[in-house]
C-alpha cells in the first residue's frame, strides 16, 4: 500500500493580504486620514449650525431694523394690534420651532452619513 | 385678593411639590441620581422638566409687568428666552452631553486640563446662580404678601425652605418629576384665567389695548415696538437680543439639565421639544400685560406692575370666580419660584459640593450642605437688595452668562486652538465688564446718558470683548494647547454609535 502524502506549501514567502485599516481606526490613531474624517464632520455640523443661526439673525434679528425703517408696515393693525405685536408675540415662536426642527433633522442626517462611512453596520436603528 | 384662597393655593403647591419629590425618591438611590438623575431621562419628560425649571418668576409675572409698563419693546425678553434654546441647540446641546461632564466646571476642566479654569468657572456658576436666585426669592416675597398677607421676608423664607426640603431629600431624579409637573401647572395657571379674561374683554367691546384711553405720562408710544426702551432703543433692543440669545446656554441650571439626557441625539430632541413648550407658554404673558393696560393701568404708577397677572382676575371677573382664578395664578407663580429656585440650587450645590466641600464631607452629604449654603446666602442677599426689579436682575444674569460661559462653551466645543490662558482671559474680561455693569445697575440712580444705557444693557459690548480676549489669549499661547484636544473633539462630535476611542 502506498501511503498518500499530501504535498502542501505554507507559502510563507508570499505577500500577506492586509485588511485595510478602518476609518474608526484611523481616527483613533489620529492619522492624517483620521483627521480628514474628523474635520469633515466638524465642518459639516458647524456650517449647518451657523446656517440656521444666520437665518435666525436675518429673520428675527432683522425685526428691529424693520420696525425702525418700515414703521408704516409694522404699525399696520392686525386684529386691533399693530403688526409688530403679532410678529413678536406669536409668529416668532413657530418660526423658532421650524428652524430647530430643520437643524435636528439635518444634524442627525449628517451623523448618519458619518457613521455609514466610518463604522458601517453600527448605525443607530 | 382673598387671603384664604391665596394661602390654600400656596399650601397645595408646596404639598404637591414635596409629595412628588418624595414619590420620586423611590427612584433616587445613588450619588449619580442626585446630580444627573443617572442620565436616563427621556426627551419628552426631560424637556417638560427643563421648561418647568426655566419658566421663572420673571416669565410668569415679570414679562406681563414689563409689557404693561413699557410696551411692545419688552416682547423681546420672552422671544430671546426662547430663541436662546435654538442657539443652544445648534452650537452646544449634543456636544455638551457627549462631553460626559457633570457640571460646567467639569466641562472646562476636561476640555482644558486646567485647575485654574475650573476654579474661575466654579466661581462664575455660583455668582450667576445667586444673581438669578435673588429675584426669585424677592418675587416670592411680594407674591406671598399679596396672596396671603404674609410679610415680604417671610414669603422668601417659605420658598427657600420648601426648595431646600425638596432638593435635599430627592436630588435631581425626583426634581425631574416635580419640575415636569410644574411646567403643566404654570401653563394651565396662565391659560385658563386668560380665556376668562379675554371673554370679559370681548364682552366689554374688545377695544384694542393700543387705543387704551388713559395714557401714562411719558409713555405715549406704548404700542410701538421701539418705545419704552430708553434713550437709545436700537442699541437696547440688540443688546437684549445678544444677552438672551447667547446667555441661555450659560445659565448654570440650564446646562446641568443636559447631562441628564441619555445621549447626544436625545439632547437635541429634548431641546427641540423645549422650543415648542416655551413658545406655547410665552404667547400668554403679553396677553396679561396688554389687558392690564385696559383694566389695571394704575399699577404702573403705584410701582407694582409685576403683580398685574394676579390682580387682573379680581378686577375683571370679580366675585368668587375671580378669586378662584387669582388663586390659580398664585399657585402658578409659586410653582415658578419653586422650580427655578430648585434648579439653581441644584446647580450651585453641585459646584459647592464638588469644589469646596467635597473633600471634607463627600457624596450626598456635601451636596445637601451645598444646597443649604446656596439658598441661605441667596436669601440674605434678597433681603438686603431691597428695590431691584425681578426682570432687571434676571436680565443681568443673562448678560453675565452670555459674556462668560457662551464664549467658553462655543470656542471650547468648536475651536481646537483654545487654551487655558485664553479661556481665563475671556472669563476675566467678560466677568469683570458685565459684573461692573451689574454692580452699577444695583447702586446707581436712573439717567438717560449713553454711559447709563451701555451699563444697563451691557451684553452688546461685553460679549464681543470676551470672545476677543479668549481668542487673542489663546493665539498668543499656542504651546499651552492641551495635547488631548483631538481625542476630546472626537468625543464631543462623533455619534455614540460609532466605535472610536473617546479618551
TrEMBL record, chain B:
GO terms for biological process: monoatomic ion transport; plasma membrane acetate transport. Pfam families: SSF. The keyword Transmembrane helix applies. GO terms for molecular function: acetate transmembrane transporter activity; symporter activity. GO terms for cellular component: plasma membrane. The chain crosses the membrane at residues 6-25, 45-68, 74-96, 117-134, 154-171, 183-202, 235-259, 271-291, 324-352, 364-384, 390-414, 421-439, 459-477. Keywords: Cell membrane, Ion transport, Membrane, Sodium, Symport, Transmembrane, Transmembrane helix, Transport. It is a multi-pass membrane protein. It comes from the Bacteria. It is found in: Cell membrane. The keyword Cell membrane applies. Belongs to the sodium:solute symporter (SSF) (TC 2.A.21) family. This is Cation acetate symporter. The lineage of its organism: Bacteria, Bacillati, Actinomycetota, Actinomycetes, Propionibacteriales.
Amino acid at each position: 500500500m502506498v501511503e498518500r502524502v499530501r504535498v502542501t506549501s505554507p507559502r510563507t514567502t508570499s505577500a500577506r493580504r492586509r485588511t485595510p485599516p478602518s476609518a474608526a481606526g484611523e481616527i483613533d490613531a489620529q492619522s492624517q486620514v483620521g483627521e480628514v474624517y474628523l474635520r469633515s464632520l466638524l465642518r459639516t455640523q458647524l456650517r449647518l449650525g451657523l446656517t440656521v443661526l444666520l437665518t435666525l439673525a436675518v429673520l428675527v434679528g432683522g425685526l428691529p431694523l424693520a420696525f425702525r425703517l418700515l414703521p408704516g408696515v409694522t404699525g399696520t393693525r392686525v386684529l386691533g394690534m399693530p403688526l409688530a405685536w403679532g410678529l413678536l408675540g406669536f409668529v416668532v415662536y413657530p418660526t423658532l420651532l421650524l428652524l430647530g426642527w430643520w437643524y435636528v433633522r439635518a444634524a442627525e442626517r449628517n451623523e448618519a452619513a458619518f457613521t455609514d462611512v466610518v463604522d458601517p453596520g453600527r448605525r443607530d436603528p | 385678593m382673598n387671603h384664604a384662597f391665596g394661602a390654600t393655593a400656596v399650601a397645595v403647591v408646596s404639598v404637591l411639590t414635596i409629595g412628588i419629590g418624595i414619590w420620586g425618591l423611590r427612584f433616587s438611590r445613588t450619588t449619580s441620581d442626585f446630580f444627573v438623575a443617572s442620565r436616563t431621562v427621556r426627551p419628552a419628560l426631560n424637556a417638560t422638566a427643563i421648561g418647568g425649571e426655566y419658566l421663572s418668576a420673571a416669565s410668569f409675572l415679570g414679562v406681563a409687568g414689563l409689557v404693561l409698563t413699557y410696551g411692545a419693546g419688552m416682547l423681546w425678553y420672552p422671544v430671546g428666552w426662547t430663541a436662546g434654546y435654538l442657539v443652544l441647540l445648534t452650537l452646544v446641546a449634543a456636544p455638551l452631553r457627549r462631553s460626559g461632564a457633570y457640571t460646567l466646571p467639569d466641562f472646562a476642566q476636561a476640555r482644558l486640563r486646567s485647575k485654574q479654569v475650573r476654579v474661575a468657572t466654579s466661581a462664575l456658576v455660583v455668582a450667576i446662580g445667586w444673581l438669578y436666585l435673588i429675584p426669585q426669592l424677592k418675587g416670592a416675597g411680594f407674591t406671598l404678601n399679596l396672596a396671603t398677607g404674609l410679610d415680604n421676608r417671610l414669603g422668601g423664607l417659605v420658598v427657600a425652605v420648601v426648595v431646600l426640603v425638596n432638593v435635599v431629600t430627592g436630588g435631581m431624579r425626583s426634581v425631574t418629576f416635580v419640575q415636569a409637573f410644574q411646567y403643566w401647572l404654570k401653563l394651565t395657571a396662565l391659560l385658563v384665567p386668560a380665556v376668562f379674561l379675554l371673554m370679559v374683554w370681548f364682552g366689554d367691546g374688545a377695544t384694542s389695548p393700543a387705543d387704551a384711553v388713559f395714557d401714562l405720562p411719558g409713555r405715549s408710544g406704548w404700542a410701538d415696538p421701539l418705545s419704552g426702551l430708553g434713550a437709545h432703543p436700537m442699541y437696547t433692543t440688540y443688546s437684549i437680543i445678544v444677552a438672551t440669545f447667547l446667555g441661555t446656554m450659560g445659565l448654570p441650571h440650564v446646562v446641568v439639565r443636559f447631562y441628564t439626557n441619555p445621549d447626544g441625539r436625545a439632547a437635541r430632541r429634548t431641546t427641540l421639544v423645549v422650543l415648542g413648550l416655551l413658545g406655547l407658554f410665552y404667547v400668554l404673558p403679553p396677553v396679561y400685560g396688554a389687558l392690564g393696560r385696559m383694566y389695571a393701568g394704575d399699577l404702573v404708577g403705584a410701582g407694582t406692575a409685576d403683580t398685574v397677572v394676579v390682580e387682573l382676575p379680581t378686577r375683571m371677573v370679580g366675585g368668587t370666580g375671580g378669586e378662584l382664578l387669582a388663586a390659580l395664578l398664585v399657585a402658578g407663580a409659586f410653582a415658578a419660584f419653586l422650580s427655578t429656585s430648585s434648579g439653581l440650587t441644584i446647580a450651585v450645590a453641585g459646584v459647592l459640593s464638588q469644589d469646596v466641600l467635597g473633600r471634607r464631607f463627600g457624596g450626598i452629604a456635601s451636596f445637601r450642605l451645598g444646597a443649604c449654603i446656596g439658598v441661605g446666602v441667596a436669601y440674605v442677599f434678597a433681603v438686603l437688595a431691597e428695590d431691584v426689579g425681578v426682570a432687571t436682575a434676571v436680565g443681568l444674569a443673562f448678560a453675565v452668562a452670555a459674556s462668560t460661559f457662551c464664549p467658553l462653551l462655543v470656542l471650547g466645543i468648536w475651536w481646537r486652538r483654545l487654551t487655558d490662558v485664553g479661556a481665563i482671559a475671556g472669563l476675566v474680561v467678560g466677568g469683570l465688564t458685565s459684573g461692573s455693569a451689574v454692580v452699577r445697575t444695583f447702586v446707581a440712580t436712573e439717567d438717560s446718558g449713553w454711559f447709563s444705557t451701555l451699563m444697563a444693557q451691557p451684553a452688546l459690548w461685553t460679549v464681543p470683548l470676551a470672545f476677543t480676549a479668549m481668542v487673542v489669549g489663546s493665539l498668543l499661547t499656542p504651546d499651552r494647547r492641551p495635547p488631548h484636544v483631538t481625542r476630546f473633539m472626537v468625543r464631543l462630535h462623533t455619534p455614540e454609535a460609532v466605535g472610536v476611542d473617546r479618551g
